[in-house]
Amino acid sequence: MTPNPLADLMRCVQFAAHKHKDQRRKEPSKPPFINHPINVATILAVEANIDDKEVLQAALLHDTVEDTDTTFEEIETAFGKNVADIVREVTDDKSLPKLERKQLQIEHAKTSSTKAKLVKLADKLDNLRDLQIVLPEGWPQERGEEFFVWAKKVVDNLRGTNEILESKLDEIFRHKNLLQ
Ligand code: ZN
């Protein structure tokens, strides 16, 4: 039997859903966390027409190490080194203080691989779309505005990667008066 090229993708959906099963997003309606990685992969496949399997797999898995007990080794064993490496590139080091982590995201964006940059662009697009609708619980208005300013700094260092995603992000930044 020839290997089914879609099987790896389905295993990622299942793996991520299992890992994030007890987590909820921070919006007041508390949607299941897994909606976010599924959105990120769907943005890449549907809106940006990305058909690179590793990129879509990494998109589905991109928050598993940062936000659950998943290890990079586990991802490498289940999905291979290439996918694990992309996830590694888009994962913040949670042992660092929050401000430093945010600064590092800006710096790391510049030197990331193209595949990691694609995941990052779609990740930011989904996060900003959510933020445009409603702030996470406990966030004052100002924190929301600061997030847009920070996200633009990250995106500025990801530019030249994908025209569709970048123009959709720019539309949001323009709406926020962060772009002329
Ligand atoms: Zn994310």
Question: Could you please describe the fold and organization of this structure?
Answer:
There is one protein chain. The chain has about 180 residues and is mainly alpha-helical. It has one domain (about 5-175): Orthogonal Bundle (Hypothetical protein af1432). It has ten helices and no strands. Helix 3 (about 55-60) packs across helix 8. The longest helix has 20 residues, at about 115-135. The relative contact order is 0.12. The mean pLDDT is about 95. The site of zinc ion has 4 residues, from loops. Zinc ion (ZN) binds near residues 36, 62, 63 and 123.
How would you sum up this structure in a few lines?
This protein is mainly α. The protein is 66% helix and 0% strand.
Tell me the number of strands. Answer: 0
Cα-based radius of gyration, to the nearest Å: 16 Å
Low-confidence stretches: none
Assign the CATH topology.
Hypothetical protein af1432
The level 1 CATH classification is Mainly Alpha
Most strands sheet: none
**What is the structural class?**
mainly alpha
Bound molecules: zinc ion
Shape call = globular
Q: State the oligomer.
A: single chain
Strand content: under 5%
CATH architecture: Orthogonal Bundle
Q: CATH-wise, what's the superfamily? A: Hypothetical protein af1432
Number of domains: 1
Distinctive features:
66% helix; 10 helices; binds zinc ion; Hypothetical protein af1432; 180 residues; mainly alpha
Record the SSE blueprint.
Layout: H1 7-19, H2 35-47, H3 53-61, H4 64-67, H5 72-79, H6 81-89, H7 98-111, H8 114-133, H9 141-156, H10 163-175
